[in-house]
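Student: I would love a firmer grasp of how sequence relates to backbone shape in proteins. I am handing you a single protein, as its sequence and its fold in token form. I am told such tokens are a discrete way to write the fold. I hope you can help me see how the letters and the tokens relate. Take your time, and here it is.
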Amino acid sequence: MKLQTISVSAAMAFLLGLVQTYFLPMCWAYLNVHSPLLGWLIDLGLRSTALHATLLPIDLFINVVLSLPAAFVLVKLRPARISLYLLWAVLPPFVWLNRMLIGNMYLGHFFGQFALGWLPALFALPVATWLLSLVAKPSLPNNSFKADAA
């Protein structure tokens, strides 16, 4: 019975990761069209490395915020080993989306840029899950309605 529960939970985490993988680019497409942030940063004179260094934490923050619904589902499932299910939710879609880079000569040349782009993709859902698990800690039972013993 336990093995079946683990496989069902892993399958749900995998499906959640797939939905998350296709949800984020749709949100980013909307944000890119309607957000004035990039224009503001360029108007401030940020270029090249300074622009990328400024955008990386902003991208990570936005990805964490956009990952909160998926993290909420994972936290509400209350798995005993949430890190295992996070791996099922994050790694297969990540590998699938980056499968073309395996053996590609450009990976070696531009590894630093790829790695910086992978940070939000790999860590947004785990960070969002961690934040929600801090907020959704199980509390002590409410014993205020019990009759007094005296």
Remarks:
- Residues 39 and 46 are 10 Å apart (CA to CA).
- The first helix runs from residue 2 to 34.
- The mean pLDDT is 85.
